[in-house]
Q: What sequence folds into this?
């Protein structure tokens, strides 16, 4: 997730770009940069770090501040480390370009460009777009046609803005990444979202996937994917700047739940090719080792621990080795017996979690091969590990983790299929199915949000909840209970459904609702229904999360169809929503719940 801003008008572009980038910094803060179309061509300044570092650099520069056309970018790194070289805008002889998203086929494009004598200077996928536009310019095309031809070749998700040495307009394109046009008298703005523009206009055009547009001062033209000129509706938005930063949502948490499809898409799409082969360049040097691993140890805390538990059956099935999932704060204080070919995996959203970092150091000191799964570049855990696979969820602002969970899960599934393929299993069909998961997450969000809100309104008065699940749904029940505790302050217990009769059944009465998570294709689905019978006979209320409706349930959140092995990605969504709306009806501080911190860096 990155932030894009652009301006074309009669005013000085630089202050507008910088203010826009400040507003978008929550979308990325690894590096930042701007390009201005001046009388002397394109001038670009970019740097590693935050917007304040960019402003300092600009203040010390001799950039032409009179320019009235420009683009800017604040980065959350995907391809390439966060440094000045990899910062946007990317430039060629005639083009400057910024991009949000991931280009799946950039290696193919890079090889094509190399065959034509063009060479990259950075480690990013974005630079290949800029060079591709440059290639078409060298072929004799004008800027507009060169940009269009380049976009036609792209596969993946992208929001792109570009300027050229010879023209005064901005070219933009959108596919599966956010991009809006802001309109005002004599000037036109572009941005990743309205946050960057709310100070300057309240009229916006939300582009469709496949749209390409030409931005020229107070004028613009929009073309659809077939290059037909189209008219998109202008919407008037009366938001405050704070609300705009949240995309119109009341809290960051609900916004981040709504972004889960994008988080998973960004995490997986460049790591699975068209044939279903998983590409993990981060582990390319360990091919021989991974073929021979005989045990996997996952260490994490909180939500990351539940991501590990959720993926454990998938990892065991496709790698054929034993998988241990351990709580970091416990693991660090006992002597763990490693095997000869043990793979140690540390999971942490922030990459700074102390209770996960210390076990990682212990494993490293024993000579065990380590891999981390984190969301923050150059974090401590990433640096300590032998190898790091970054989730690409973008910044997560709300303390209660949501999109980090599904993106961690996505990496663990990628690992399962990747190691499985190295050990001789054909996992391509499963990897291809994983590519469908973002759209299924989006479907689950849209389908279940109204129902969970209604249930929350009716049930927020209860003081205790029981969460039950079997198989793959057991860790999801644990995560659902954790979310409710974190932000509603309601006591909630998560259990394997089969354990209910071994103690928790004593808690059940008319004042303790039970949330049962069940999939009709799970091996023990009939036993989950038996649990419902046991609860009803004790006057308990049942909230059922399932792809099938049961008359035993007082309320059912009907889930869209999904392959059983992939259900954690979608079945967690209504549990997150239920916790959110219960906390909302209780009037709690959802994004910053009491006693909790986003990154736990102390013991």
A:
């Amino acid at each position: 997730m990155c932030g894009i801003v652009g301006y074309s008008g009669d005013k000085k572009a630089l202050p507008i770009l910088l203010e826009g980038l400040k507003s978008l910094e929550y979308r990325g803060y690894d590096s930042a940069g701007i390009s201005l179309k001046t009388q002397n061509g394109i001038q670009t300044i970019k740097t590693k770090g935050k917007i304040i570092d960019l402003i300092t650099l600009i203040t010390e520069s001799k950039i032409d501040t009179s320019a009235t056309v420009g683009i800017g970018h604040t980065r959350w790194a995907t391809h390439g480390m966060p440094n000045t070289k990899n910062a946007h805008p990317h430039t060629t002889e005639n083009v400057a370009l910024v991009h949000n998203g991931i280009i799946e086929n950039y290696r193919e494009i890079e090889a094509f460009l190399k065959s034509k004598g063009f060479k990259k200077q950075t480690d990013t996928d974005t630079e290949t777009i800029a060079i591709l536009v440059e290639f078409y310019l060298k072929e004799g095309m004008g800027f507009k046609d060169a940009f269009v031809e380049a976009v036609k070749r792209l596969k993946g998700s992208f929001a792109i803005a570009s300027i050229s040495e010879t023209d005064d307009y901005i070219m933009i394109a959108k596919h599966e990444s956010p991009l809006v046009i802001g309109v005002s008298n004599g000037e036109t703005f572009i941005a990743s979202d309205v946050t960057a523009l709310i100070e300057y206009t309240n009229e916006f055009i939300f582009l469709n996937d496949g749209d390409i547009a030409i931005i020229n001062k107070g004028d613009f033209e929009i073309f659809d994917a077939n290059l037909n000129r189209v008219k998109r509706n202008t919407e008037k938005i009366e938001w405050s700047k704070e609300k705009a930063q949240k995309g119109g949502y009341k809290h960051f948490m609900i916004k981040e739940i709504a972004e889960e499809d994008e988080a998973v898409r960004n995490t997986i799409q460049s790591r699975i090719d068209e044939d279903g082969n998983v590409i993990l360049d981060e582990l390319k040097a360990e091919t021989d080792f991974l073929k021979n691993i005989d045990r996997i140890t996952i260490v994490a805390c909180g939500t990351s621990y539940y991501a590990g538990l959720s993926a454990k059956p998938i990892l065991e099935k496709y790698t054929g080795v034993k998988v241990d999932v351990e709580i970091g704060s416990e693991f660090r204080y006992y002597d763990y017996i490693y095997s000869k070919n043990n793979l140690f995996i540390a999971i942490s959203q922030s990459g700074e979690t102390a209770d996960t970092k210390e076990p990682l150091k212990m494993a490293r000191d024993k000579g065990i091969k380590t891999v981390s799964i984190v969301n923050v570049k150059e974090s401590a855990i990433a640096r300590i590990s032998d190898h790091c696979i970054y989730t690409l969820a973008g910044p997560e602002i709300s303390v209660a983790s949501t999109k980090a969970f599904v993106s961690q899960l996505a990496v663990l599934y990628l690992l399962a299929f990747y190691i499985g393929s190295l050990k001789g299993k054909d996992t391509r069909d499963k990897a291809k199915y994983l590519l469908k998961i973002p759209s299924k997450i989006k479907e689950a969000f849209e389908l279940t949000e109204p129902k969970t809100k209604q249930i929350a309104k009716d049930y927020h008065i209860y003081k205790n909840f029981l969460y039950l699940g079997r198989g793959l749904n057991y860790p999801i029940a644990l995560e659902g209970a954790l979310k409710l505790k974190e932000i509603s302050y309601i006591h909630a217990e998560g259990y394997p459904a089969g354990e209910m009769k071994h103690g928790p059944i004593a808690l059940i009465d008319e004042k303790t609702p039970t949330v049962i998570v069940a999939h009709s294709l799970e091996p023990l689905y009939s036993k989950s229904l038996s649990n419902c019978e046991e609860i009803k006979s004790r006057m308990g209320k049942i909230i059922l999360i399932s792809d099938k409706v049961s008359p035993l349930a007082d309320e059912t959140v009907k889930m869209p169809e999904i392959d059983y092995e992939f259900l954690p990605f979608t079945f967690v969504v209504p549990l997150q929503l239920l916790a959110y709306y219960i906390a909302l009806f209780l009037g709690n501080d959802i994004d910053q719940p009491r006693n909790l911190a986003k990154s736990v860096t102390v013991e």
In short: The chain has three domains: 3-245, 254-435, 439-586. The longest strand covers residues 95-103. DSSP finds 19 helices and 25 strands in the chain.
